[in-house]
Amino acid sequence: MLNKYGKKMASFINNMQQKISSNIQQNITNLNGNNENIDIDLWTKASIDRNPYSFNKCVNSLPDFIIAKEHPDFAIIYNNSSFENRVNILIFLTKNSMEKGCPELAIDLATAGIDFCQHSYNVYGAGIEEIFIFGVSQFVSYIFKSYESMGYYSKMLSIVENAIKWLLSINAHEKHIVDLRFYRISALIENNRLEEAREKLDFEAHHNNINHISYNTLLRRLNERLKPSTDIKEDKSAVEEVSELQENMEKDIQTFLSQTENSGIKEVIENFELNSQEKIKSNEDAISSLGKMLGQFGSIANLFNKSLGNKVNVTIFFNKVIKILHDPIKGYETDILIEMSNKLESIRRESEDIEIANNTLWLLFLCYKRLKRFDEAFNILQEVRKYINERRKNIKDPLKRAGISDEYPKLYLELASILINRDNAGLLSVIEEAKGRALSDKLAIETGKESIIDNSSLAENWLPDLVKNLNIHYISYLVDIDVIYAICITKQGNLHSKILPIASKLINELRPNIDPSTWGKKIKGFFYEPDDVAQQLSPLVNWLEDLYKNKVLCEHDHICYSPDGLLHLVPLHYVDFLGVPMVKLFSLSRVHSATLLRHFVLKNLSKPEHYISVKVPLADEINDNPQKIIDLSMVSEWLGDNCDLPGKLFENEKADMNNLKLEKFEDALVHFSTHGYFPKKEENKNPFKHSGPVLSKDGHLPKNEKSGDILSPECIIKDKNSFNFKNAHVTLQACVSGLSEEGVAGDALGPEWSLLMAGAGSVLSSHWNIPAKNSADFCITFYTEWLINKRTRAQAWRSAVLSQMDDNNFFNGDNAYLWAAFSLAGDWR
Q: How far apart are CA 30 and CA 34, in angstroms?
């Protein structure tokens, strides 16, 4: 009898939540029986592709009633091709397929979603890992429910187990795993593995999860399954059964109330589980039904009905605005733009929902921009900027904080396009705010100078004086699709800016030929690689010619420059300036942002207290290439014979991760004579996890660059106690150690970035593969000039570059390949 009424109550609650109607059956009919599986691999590849075309094509191939483009939420996320929105689109489509009676399609879409999220977590940089982790847990919940509706209980358990295993392997936060553990308990009960379910519930109780909204429900289900059937009294009255059921539900309500006090009514409503599988969603039907079921919540239900009703109406209007703005004709008609902007301003002014008010901003900006009301457009952009910075302040993790700005990827570019001819000081702040966020934030937080973060948007107030006092020139770049915005602060403290007729498209085309060893070489038949790369890149620097001719920039001056995007791949010192490489006239160093520049200046400048040298050849080089072993040993031998510092040498099999973790890198000169690894673009690997010097592993030398242990950025960042490089200088005499890929946060993810994140004062690293003998000669010259002749690091670096340069043929690819390989990053003094 209890089961009978329990099922009726569960059915009633489920009906409240989903509001099942007759048109679902019609939707199934509309599918015409075509419930065949999608190509999961195709969807996964399309989701990962940076170009949204293939992904949109996959979406458009689905039946119309599954896509539901008229749905306001879908329309908004569909018109934004970011990876975060692709996750949201797949979640939307999965949920829609399940609710429209197509569980097989929901399972396939969710499976593709899991593949996409797991792959993207590994490939794309710091800042948005959270959305991929969230996506996996959401997709698993939908697959679970779809399998449950089909009675595939063993598959329910399998999908949850695999997801939990992956989340644990990446050290995901407990909040992403706990719900899945309760799903696993539910699946264990359905598969009649009751003792295991009991153990899992005991585990949750031991870990203080008895207040989880599923706990009491699952405990009752388990006890019912474990209880002999004779224990159920058949003569129990229906009134007693319903009363017992109500008592149990009241316990859940008390849990609901206690959670409401702690975390807010909306969050609880979004997570409150009405039965063992279905969670209440924050939509007006569910909240209204909950309010009717729980009388004391009536006023809350009314409040949220009103709030959500307004939100739906506003969202529908936003959807219409987006559609019109995408229309090549209506989207530029003055009357329509004025009407939309007036309505958006009204929503922004009157809405009590901060999120809704802020969602109007970008749409308002587009309207004002097209109406040529540039002052108002600029003011709106400043509001977006303020909103972003306020949100950043409330996030302590620099990697997650930095990813916030990716929600408005065009914000700083649009601001720069307005300021470039109007306000150099404002342009400077915009460019600086756009880059190197995670690195700048982390160092500022750890040094107790977090005010630097708040002042990064006010760089014009302090940076010119800083540059003037340092007697250097500072150049900062911001890369757009068609142009590059550049600004220079001279050592006199003056600002000069320029829109450069060079863009990311050209740099991407030149990417295979950034390495000079390819210049002029025959590739196929009569085809040759370009030999004028240094000249094609000259717009990056030739705008400085007047400053040089007027002796504002003088020979032997130091230029500190801050790249952006693909410019991190370009050694600026080899670019053609007045017919010679930049390094012939100036010393150069690079820095990720102005806030990082100030970080170096604020700390005490000191020389290394000791050295650590790490030498790791490949296994087959020991016997097959003895000269390579001699070349790799040159720097460590020089340090031992000529450097007036105590030191240690880790070589061959002993140079592994475990031994290095025991060393003190702080205030050290750290030299890696190893092979290096940086993933090629086509490998689709995240440099955060897969780049750096290659070490020995488990007592064995690496067989190749992809084997052995890699001292990756992930290793350095996550094990900060072992790899504390505070005030250290690090030389990576390791091939391709200076390469990087732009992360979501605007940082250049790679070995150099991670060492600076770990506190290193300066880093010397290479852009491409270079013979061990030449790289050793370069490093020895650098150390001789710096440590023995007492020159600055920048002067020592320039001397090492010029020592390998053929003055009669410096743009020859074979020669430039040797002298241009190494860049100096960080403190140049």
A: 9
Amino acid at 793: R
**Structure tokens of 789?**
């002749």
Question: CATH code for 609-826?
Answer: 3.40.50
Pick from 71, 151, 141, 157: nearest CA to 106? 141
Q: What is the pLDDT of residue 545?
A: 97
Given a contact cutoff of 8 angstroms between Cβ atoms, the answer to whether 541 and 572 are in contact is: yes
In angstroms, the CA 374 to CA 758 distance is: 43
- 256: pLDDT strictly greater than 50: no
- Domain extents for the chain? 412-600, 609-826
pTM: 0.66
Instruction: Kindly report the number of other CB atoms within 10 A of residue 675's CB atom.
Output: 25
Torsion, CA 217, CA 220, CA 223, CA 224, rounded to 10: -110
Burial code (b: 16+ CB inside 10 Å, e: under 16) for 602-616 equals ebeeeebebbbbbbb
Q: How far is CA 690 from CA 128, 159, 568, 618, 713, in A?
A: 18, 28, 18, 18, 8
Instruction: Give the end-to-end CA distance of the chain in Å, rounded to a whole number.
Output: 83
Q: Which residue has the tokens 């100030």?
A: 598
Half-sphere exposure of 379 (CA within 13 A, CB side): 6
For the segment 94-114, what is each residue's pLDDT rounded down to a tens digit?
988 888 888 889 999 999 999
DSSP 478: E
Contact 613, 647 (CB under 8 A): yes
Q: Which residue has the higher pLDDT, 91 or 251?
A: 91
